[in-house]
User: Which sequence fits this backbone?
């Protein structure tokens, strides 16, 4: 690992292995703001013009001095269900902890939720990565039911592929689909097949989002590369009508999102949600 300055994001940790490079913000976030082949294009969206942000009365009242929330781009860790407290402004520097082959990026404790978030990253000899997302309840009481929510914000032209079950379950259902109020099923960016859901990013401003319980690794085709995310989904209750995978797009980016089971967290409790990343040409 070495430190570099990267665009408007300031100080970043640079992780390189197996011909692939990852940049993780240190002055804010954390965000995995860049991932790609050495000298190649970034698979992630970078919000250089600050097109996506959220502020207003809630932030002025509950988070004085914290500023507003900015998407920044890249990969982040969030809290599900999505309420205003999900948008905690992560504008402060993060703590960086090196441990053998791994580096952990730790945010400050959120004053509104009591949660402290961290992402532990380990790159293998091929340049693929294991990301361990963690919540620690450092508040003074049990949390409401929460899930870890890992979001990868992909650049333009991305196409998400989410496999769904083809198991013969007889008289019982074998698939679920969750829709958001703004989702138009006639939208040609969305395709629901018998074995998969696909969503294509296009220059269309109207957002669209869909979720499901995926039966295997999800992938994104982006700039001639394939980005694959594998998760281990343990038994339990999942949020958003039982989703472990969600995908969203608008005219500037596409998100591929993974979720842990949803549960209340006792004071001091830790919960981890792991993604395994691979990138191929």
Assistant:
């Amino acid at each position: 690992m070495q430190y570099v300055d990267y665009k408007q994001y300031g100080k970043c940790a640079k992780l390189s292995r197996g011909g692939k490079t990852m940049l993780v913000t240190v002055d804010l976030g954390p965000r995995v703001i860049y991932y790609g082949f050495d000298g190649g294009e970034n698979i992630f969206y970078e919000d250089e013009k600050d097109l996506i942000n959220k502020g207003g009365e809630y932030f002025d009242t509950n988070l004085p001095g914290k500023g507003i929330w900015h998407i920044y781009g890249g990969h982040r860790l969030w809290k599900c269900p999505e309420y205003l407290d999900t948008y905690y402004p992560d504008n402060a520097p993060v703590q960086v902890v090196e441990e053998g082959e791994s580096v952990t990026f730790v945010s400050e404790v959120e004053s509104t939720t009591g949660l402290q978030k961290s992402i532990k990253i380990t790159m293998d000899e091929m340049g693929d990565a294991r990301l361990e997302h963690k919540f620690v309840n450092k508040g003074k009481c049990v949390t409401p039911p929460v899930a870890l929510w890992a979001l990868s914000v992909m650049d333009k032209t991305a196409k998400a592929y989410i496999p769904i079950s083809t198991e013969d379950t007889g008289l019982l259902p074998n698939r679920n689909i969750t829709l958001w109020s703004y989702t138009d099923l006639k939208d040609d960016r969305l395709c629901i097949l018998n074995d998969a859901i696909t969503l294509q990013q296009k220059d269309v401003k109207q957002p669209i989002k869909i979720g499901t319980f995926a039966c295997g690794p999800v992938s994104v085709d982006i700039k001639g590369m394939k980005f694959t995310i594998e998760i281990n989904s343990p038994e339990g209750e999942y949020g958003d009508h039982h989703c472990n995978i969600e995908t969203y797009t608008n005219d500037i980016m596409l998100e591929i999102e993974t979720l842990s089971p949803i549960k209340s967290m006792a004071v001091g409790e830790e919960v981890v949600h792991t993604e395994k990343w691979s990138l191929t040409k």
Q: What stands out?
A: The helical segments are 57-62, 239-242.
